[in-house]
Amino acid sequence: MNPEPNLHGLYVPLVTPFTDDLRLAPDALARLADEALSAGASGLVALGTTAETATLSAEERETVVRVCSAACRAHGAPLVVGVGTGDTAAAITALRELAARGDVAAALVPAPPYVRPGEAGTLAHFTALAEHGGLPLVVYDIPYRSGQTLGAGTIDALGRLPGVIGIKHATGAIDATTMELLGSPLPGFALLGGDDIVLSPLVAAGAHGGIVASANVRTADYAEMIALWRRGSAAPARVLGAELARLSAALFTEPNPTVIKGVLYAQNRIPSPAVRMPLLAASADAVHRAALLAGRPARDTARQRPSTGMPSRSATEVSAGPSGSATRVTA
């Protein structure tokens, strides 16, 4: 029997809350981090795509990691931090800096984006990171962003590298490669779903959990759905999974994380739905549709959610403004 991977269950890649004038809102981030872990998330992901990391300054990135680390430390949960670059040497430097902190469990690292080094080059890249980075690695397989497809043989070779502890599988489908990986699991190697809409069938087929942007909303329900499948409670897992797939589809009707931020703002959980360019704030219609599906509070979080001290907002108060800022409209 294969040992349980170190990473399993639900990992929430947190959004980065901004103010209306696009400044970082660390207090709101701290609340989101605490809420996610209190609701049943196994851990957090900082500086992922959902965090708009490409738009953050070095100082802001440090603040995000510090805030998320404090929440994880308080809850005894692991923190995974995104490291995305097409430069192997720069990635090693970034990994060493994170490893020196002593509070990061692993790094989420995509195949070198845009470079498209081929599968042999990708394997060489991760081999160098594993040997010299000093931090456990989760491979981020997302070909529609990286431009690099990874076959089952390459993923198997990656999973055998010392220090590579899992993969975020976000290829856009459950296909033959997916089933080959699930059918021949490597000891201690976690397969985590990264395509929110198909998370339920992926966990049903044997995935260990997921890194799920949609779980910024209704965190407890996503955690429960994963737990139900892993306990073998298929009937309730299937019903909840179908419900959450509809929510995920609504949250991704416009570029991530714009709709998620709109819903969080409508729920009074962040001070603004603002995103930084080149993203533009989600349309009011998209936020309204998603907010209706997210309207039922996550089962285990309603009593625990602290007040932000801000007035409540309707789901139709958010629309795109100039330069990616937030403009409020009334229903």
CATH C-level label of the domain at 9-82 and 170-233: Alpha Beta
Class by SSE composition: alpha/beta
Strand order, largest beta sheet: 1-2-3-4-5-6-7-8
What's the CATH topology label of the domain at 9-82 and 170-233? TIM Barrel
CATH architectural type of the domain at 9-82 and 170-233: Alpha-Beta Barrel
Instruction: Tell me the span between the first and last alpha carbons.
Output: 56 Å
Précis, in short:
With 331 residues, this protein is an alpha/beta fold.
Question: How would you characterize the overall build of this protein?
Answer:
- This protein is α/β, with parallel strands linked by helices and 331 residues long.
- The protein has a domain at 9-82 and 170-233: Aldolase class I (TIM Barrel).
- Helix content is 41%, strand content 13%.
- The protein contains 12 helices and 10 strands.
- It has helices at residues 26-38, 58-75, 88-101, 118-132, 143-146, 152-159, 176-183, 199-204, 219-231, 234-251, 258-266, 284-294, and strands spanning 9-13, 43-46, 79-82, 106-110, 137-141, 164-169, 190-193, 209-211, 318-320, 326-328.
- The strands form 2 sheets. Strands 1-2-3-4-5-6-7-8 form an 8-stranded parallel beta barrel, surrounded by 6 helices.
- α11 (258-266) crosses α12.
- The radius of gyration is 19 Å and the shape is globular.
- Mean pLDDT is 90; it is low at 296-312 and 314-331.
Relevant terms:
two-stranded antiparallel sheet; disordered C terminus; 41% helix; 12 helices; globular; TIM Barrel; alpha/beta; 331 residues
